[in-house]
Amino acid sequence: xxxxxxxxxxxxxxxxxxxxxxxxxxxxxxxxxxxxxxxxxxxxxxxxxxxxxxxxxxxxxxxxxxxxxxxxxxxxxxxxxxxxxxxxxxxxxxxxxxxxxxxxxxxxxxxxxxxxxxxxxxxxxxxxxxxxxxxxxxxxxxxxxxxxxxxxxxxxxxxxxxxxxxxxxxxxxxxxxxxxxxxxxxxxxxxxxxxxxxxxxxxxxxxxxxxxxxxxxxxxxxxxxxxxxxxxxxxxxxxxxxxxxxxxxxxxxxxxxxxxxxxxxxxxxxxxxxxxxxxxxxxxxxxxxxxxxxxxxxxxxxxxxxxxxxxxxxxxxxxxxxxxxxxxxxxxxxxxxxxxxxxxxxxxxx
Amino acid sequence: xxxxxxxxxxxxxxxxxxxxxxxxxxxxxxxxxxxxxxxxxxxxxxxxxxxxxxxxxxxxxxxxxxxxxxxxxxxxxxxxxxxxxxxxxxxxxxxxxxxxxxxxxxxxxxxxxxxxxxxxxxxxxxxxxxxxxxxxxxxxxxxxxxxxxxxxxxxxxxxxxxxxxxxxxxxxxxxxxxxxxxxxxxxxxxxxxxxxxxxxxxxxxxxxxxxxxxxxxxxxxxxxxxxxxxxxxxxxxxxxxxxxxxxxxxxxxxxxxxxxxxxxxxxxxxxxxxxxxxxxxxxxxxxxxxxxxxxxxxxxxxxxxxxxxxxxxxxxxxxxxxxxxxxxxxxxxxxxxxxxxxxxxxxxxx
Lengths: 350, 350
Prior knowledge:
Helix content of chain A: 25-40%
Structural class of chain A: alpha+beta
Number of domains of chain A: 2
CATH topology of the largest domain in chain A: Phosphoribosyl-aminoimidazole Synthetase, Chain A, domain 2
Oligomer: homodimer
Number of helices of chain A: 8
Strand content of chain A: 15-25%
CATH superfamily of the largest domain in chain A: PurM-like C-terminal domain
Shape of chain A: globular
Largest interface: A-B, 97 and 98 residues
Distance between the termini of chain A: 49 Å
């Protein structure tokens, strides 16, 4: 009796079947032939149940973050579920003030998924991971029957090291602080809605999905580490929901100036047409930074000097407000309460 | 205008809907009211995009592992997808020789999932995590439309610290080494198949799902750390596939004695009836240890002295074999090649 030979994966016409998740030879082929080949690095090549990694430098704290990614469609203008899964977790680490070090990736594949699509997504993850300088060091793959998934889902987890002195947190906002954003809002959410064809709208809009840790390092290099009170990326629920979360966590209010909030003209026009509010649309390449008013100019200059922060702006200030309201001053001088996202779910945008 | 009040989660009759994944108020309610309440610990309570954690002791290596869990049915005799998700990743860390420190959990929920079922699963995860002494420190939740998932999927990632001197690896087996298993094989796989009702078979079989890091520490306390050449938990694909992987990675062969391999009588009888081989069935609470022959007796004694290793046995030896075959000596003196799992997929058993 002789062990069956490896059949090569057919990356052109092949499809995922249940054997790819059963732990036998087909699983090994998929892992070796696709994932390990694309993500190749010394840690992943260890080939064990997990990766053994050098610990961070003495005194640095570990930061651990995770994200599930279920975006639909899998491919959209400006990215795909693979690049988004890498960027999403890198950005969670960056918003904690950490330098991202390592990523894990866990895949849930639906029977029937074209191997060509999977290969394209895996290549996109590999490219995003290499561009960020953060290797995917360990992973797992499962397969579910057709009709029990939706192509594929990717959960990424990330590990980072936070240098001494940094402690940005949603609990860090103080009355008087300046509220900055790194660029125009709503691009990702609107690009996704457009790509789904739900809006009956064609556009050239692309997602802003990108890794923000370089921009964060530029900010920390420009002002004292302790002055970065809050860092957050306004993903699901958009700027409005993220600011409400921060106001709630920090026990403060916020006062925003509507005309100061950068929104791309194409996004503004589409939102106007469709009755959407760009402040509730998801972003995947923008950050909110809250810093003391005295550091706002230096922080803004640092953000604007970076390619990913050229349109950075101060959009408002932190206030004392026991109700923790986020309020918006409109162009005509009115006040509008910017509540949490409540109805109108926009699911599966990340 | 006034912010809408929090509606409490209806954990008795409520169901997951798309707003629970949209990042707004309903998402926050689910996270605060269910996940954060059940998993409660200081790290998770930080409430940021990730958890800030103390780094391991100087000189210890970090170990990072991840697993996707798609087991069907969600509840089975001896566990559920929640306890399995905790045990699975703890065991991956333990098989690397690491003390598990922290877990992350990422949930993909299907619209319509009963909140009562989710609460039961989350409580089970919390219990498993507390029993193991390893907190769930960060997480994420997404929701997909009905028909695009299957109740819920859980991806866990884990972080551990590996003490100096330990280096178990699938590449570590050496000719002459003893191959040990910690107990009877096939319980989890057969319990799952029975629970699915696919076999037309009723039984009192329960999964062996359990966290193995205590058993691993007992082993490391009994023999020199460097003598633990390989540690693996034979999950998907069972003992046969896992040993083939190790033989391949280490460039060795293996010779097993069929009568030495522990299998519970109920599992043996059901396998006989159904034409299944217990050596290909998944386990979630057993380990394979490969150690030098001179350490086998001490290692076996240590395993047997632990509640989770009472039926530990030496089942064979590592051989020199350029073909990397795993061979089985049958009771009648014949030889049978134990190949990788090839056909007959048994998906969604973990």
